Amino acid sequence: MVLGLLLPDALLAQERYQVGVCDWMVLKRQKLGEFELARQLGCDGVELDMGSLGQREAFENKLRDPAEAAIFKRTADSLGIKVGAVAMSGFYAQDLTKKDTYLELAADCFDTMDKMGGATVAFLPLGGSGNEWSTDKAKRAEVVRRLHAIGEAAKARGKRVGIDTPLDAKGNLKLLKEINSSGIAIFYKFQTIVENGWDLCKDLRRLGAKNICAIHASNTDRVWLRNDSTIDLPAIRQTLDQMGWSGWLFVERSRDVRMTRNVKMNYGNNVRYLKETFNSYPAPEVALASEGRDAEYVATITARAEKATDELSITWTPMGQNVRNIVANRYFALNDIYAERDSIKKTDKCLAEALCDSKLYRSHFGFDADLSRYLKPHEVERVKDVMTFNVVKVTYDAYCDMIPSLKEEEKAQILVWLKEARELAIDAESSKKKHEAFGKYKGRINNYLSRRGYDIQKEREAWEQRVKARGGTL
Question: Which residues contact 294 (CB under 8 A, 6 or more apart)?
Answer without folding.
Answer: none
